[in-house]
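Please, structure for the following, as tokens.
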Amino acid sequence: MALTKREREMVAVGASIAGNCIPCLEVHYLKCVEMGFTKDEIEEAFILAKKVKEVPNKRIYETADWLNGNKPVLAADAGGSCCPEDILSENSCCSPKGNKK
């Protein structure tokens, strides 16, 4: 496997948030703590997972506006991005170019 056990556990925290699975989040959070992740590292995973989860909500609102004849505000244009700034590029899911799929 390409990911380490530590990396997989942190991914599981994000996936738990994305999947709305409270028991999963509780288990994977505790495993991350046991593995020595700091609260700041775990908080960073929480923040990223929350941002990723917000994208579908923004998309449905944009689509509703578009269907009603209004110009939608793209998430990237509104400052809402699930991509950390250090990896944001024109090919990321959060860029206006990446939004046109």
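The chain is about 60% helix and 0% strand. The mean pLDDT is 80.
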